[in-house]
Amino acid sequence: MTASPPIPFIDLKAQRSRLGGTVDAAVARVLEHGQFILGPEVRELESQLAAFCGAKHALTCSSGTDALTLVLLAKGIKPGDAVFCPSFTFCATAEVVALVGATPVFVDVIAGTFNMSAAGLERGIATATRLGLRPALVIPVDLFGLPADYDEILPVAERHGLPVLSDAAQSFGASYRGRSVGTFGVATATSFFPAKPLGCYGDGGAVLTDDDQLIEVLRSLRVHGMGTDKYDNIRLGMTGRLDTIQAAVLIEKLKVFKEEIAARDRAAAAYTAALADVAIVPQVPDGLASVWAQYTIRLRPGRRAKLAADLAAEGIPTAVYYPKALHQQQAYQHFPVSDGGLAVTERLVDEVISLPMHGYLDQATQGRIIEAVRRALG
Ligand SMILES: *Cc1c(COP(=O)(O)O)cnc(C)c1O
Q1: How confident is the model at residue 292 (pLDDT cuts 50, 70, 90)?
Q2: Which residues carry this modification: N6-(pyridoxal phosphate)lysine (predicted)?
Q3: What is the pLDDT of residues 186-216, one digit of tens each?
Q4: d(CA 202, CA 160)
Q5: Is 374 helix (H, G, I), strand (E, B) or coil?
Q6: In terms of domains, do 214 and 286 share one?
Q7: Suppose 301 and one of 36, 136, 214, 350 were both cysteines; which one would form an S-S bond, judging by CB atoms 3.0 to 4.6 Å apart?
């Protein structure tokens, strides 16, 4: 028997062979003009990102983590403040909160969508108040590329006078009932880490907002809190810029991004049709569109390791996002969880497993994956 070739989890090479020529030419143009910091491609990309999602402003920056940090600094989040976020997320969501000295308060998620529960948020706000913290900000995460339930979350936040910062590191390009990710809450943070749906060739991120005052503060914070120029310092800031070379790469990748999203959506639909009888497949509520940063299925606890091992033996990679929730991690276990606990989160960390997903997953390759999953779970 000839071994089948290994399948990549995210196939950046296929995208590279499609876009290689135009990306190389775009990078070469930057090498020629030499404006490596905040060159013309940065502004060009920012106007394209804003237009893409319908936000008034986009500000590119050095990573998704820094995009979140810039907004926390701009909003003056400080010690004594409670910031509500899920525990079922990548660590950066809560890390930035703790790094500015505030307290992340962990909120449970909904099993079907993996995203923040509005009822859980209500409980989290009550918990923070009981602990003597000042409720200050809500950070819903659009996990795996699916927008959080903004119609439920925004009214709860508003009732308590809390601004909402959307962690859209995995969901740029997704939509929620006719509105694009990037237009919810006071600001949206996204990431261009290479493995994200829209990735560059290094670290990168952006903040999207409609707020004219906020964007000016963010622009200042991105360059050491500059005032009229970078040697006029009116606040403490960061080295938070996106490299011009990365902006040039992203401009080329943005040209095919809608097509790639459509291809991801077809691949997700094929997985769902083929696997719904052997696993719990991800739900997309009516009117929402995911960009499928991950295609994540759920299995009864204890079944995941065998699936991963059986697939690995056939050259098919899988990943577990996330094997431990943040409140179960050494660095975060001393932060408060909402009263009533995080039962759904604690169940999901034992159930989830993600399958290969990207915009270049051809039918033959996906057929191989589907067959192998069905055999392993059969
Ligand atoms: C990737 C990610 C981040 C951080 O983005 P970086 O660009 O890697 O800094 C933040 N939040 C979530 C949910 C992410 O998936």
Answers
A1: very high
A2: 196
A3: 999 999 999 999 999 999 999 999 999 999 9
A4: 39
A5: helix
A6: no
A7: 350
